[in-house]
Design brief:
The protein has 10 helices and 7 strands. With 287 residues, it is α/β, with parallel strands linked by helices. The protein has a single domain (8-279), classed as NAD(P)-binding Rossmann-like Domain (Rossmann fold, 3-Layer(aba) Sandwich), CATH 3.40.50. Strands 3-2-1-4-5-6-7 form a 7-stranded parallel sheet, with helices on both faces. Helix 1 (17-28) packs across helix 8 and helix 3 packs parallel to helix 4. The longest helix is centred in the middle third of the chain and has 29 residues, at 104-132. It starts with 7 loop residues before the first strand and ends in an 8-residue tail after the last helix.
């Protein structure tokens, strides 16, 4: 097991949830963390807290979908620390709604944040890691990167694509000593659901034929809350992915995520579909 002490780690989406918990944890272990997200005040508050407990944090307000912001993030990190040891690609959000009624523009936006921006930032960091002959890229995917659900398939598609990009990249970068690792959280208590509700509200309101199922969706998600893990659980796994000498290609967290992925792997698709429909109350519409 290695250590993250004095490692320079960029974390996107550090203003809340998993990113924030990861920044706190890595800083506690002695890493210098570079905090990137759009909400500057949140990042500054976190940086102050980290500094007060003797850690190091650099705030670089960043919208990952803006090219100039991505460049500034990498430049400020290099100016301040002179190197980058790891990039934790964590920023993301969930678009919900029946595929029939999600505007293409909203689908593109979700891909822009969760996938294209992530690829573009990674492209800026790779040459630096390559010259240093080592480093780690940790991509925060989801169980949704391997399981697609009704009414969440747009978000799920962004994460499926991220899994594919990560697998390809892992092979390409292995000769340079750069590890690419995927993290697959299950349901975690963060601001994720609130943000998904906000960005999806107008779509859900325009999805009349699906209304009986959508009305039930919130209640079902609410029930899932008792299974929810904590952002600190994911942070601990990200720390492990950064420290293990031979990191695994993917880590699922917490237990319910591993169980769900095992179920998906072992039972036939038509049975998994039937379980999903049952879980989501998708019965035939009575005319
Ligand atoms: N919570 C879950 O159940 C769960 C499960 C599986 C996977 N995940 C994944 O975990 C990651 C973190 O999500 P979370 O659960 O921690 O949700 P969260 O609390 O909503 O945090 C999302 C973070 O992403 C940042 N972000 C969003 N758009 C951005 C942009 N354009 N530029 C920069 N930063 C941006 C947000 O910061 P600003 O708004 O300040 O920019 C925030 O810091 C996401 O990739 C999500 O898909 C979450």
């Amino acid at each position: 097991m290695g250590s993250v002490k004095d490692r320079i780690v960029i974390i996107t989406g550090a203003s809340s949830g998993i990113g924030e918990a990861t920044a706190r944890r890595l800083a506690r272990e002695g890493a210098a963390v570079v905090l990137a997200a759009r909400r500057r005040e949140r990042l500054e508050r976190l940086a102050e807290e980290i500094a007060a407990s003797g850690g190091r944090a650099l705030v670089v307000p960043t919208d990952v979908t803006v090219e100039a912001d991505r460049r500034r993030l990498v430049e400020r990190t290099m100016q301040t620390y002179g190197r980058i040891d790891a990039l934790v690609n964590n920023a993301g959000y969930g678009q919900r709604g029946p595929i029939e009624s999600v505007p293409l523009e909203a689908i593109r936006r979700n891909f822009e944040t969760n996938l294209f921006a992530l690829i573009a930032l990674t492209q800026l960091v790779i040459p630096i890691l390559r010259v240093q002959r080592g480093g780690r890229i940790v991509n925060v995917s989801s169980v949704a990167g391997r399981i697609a659900r009704p009414f969440s398939a747009v978000y799920d598609a962004t994460k499926h694509a991220l899994e594919a990009i990560s697998d390809g990249l892992r092979g390409e970068l292995a000769p340079f000593g750069i590890h690419v690792i995927v993290i697959e959280p299950g349901f975690i208590q963060t601001e994720f659901l609130r943000v998904a509700d906000e960005v999806s509200r107008s779509v859900l309101e325009r999805s009349q034929p699906y209304a009986p199922f959508l009305a039930d969706l919130d209640r079902r998600y609410e029930r899932l809350r008792r299974w929810a893990g904590h952002p600190e659980d994911v942070a601990a796994v990200i720390l492990r992915a950064l420290m293990e000498r031979h990191p695994r290609p993917r880590y699922a967290v917490p237990g319910h995520a591993r169980a769900l992925l095992a179920l998906k792997r072992w039972i036939p698709d038509h049975l998994f579909d039937a379980l999903m429909r049952r879980q989501m109350g998708l019965r035939p519409i009575e005319s």
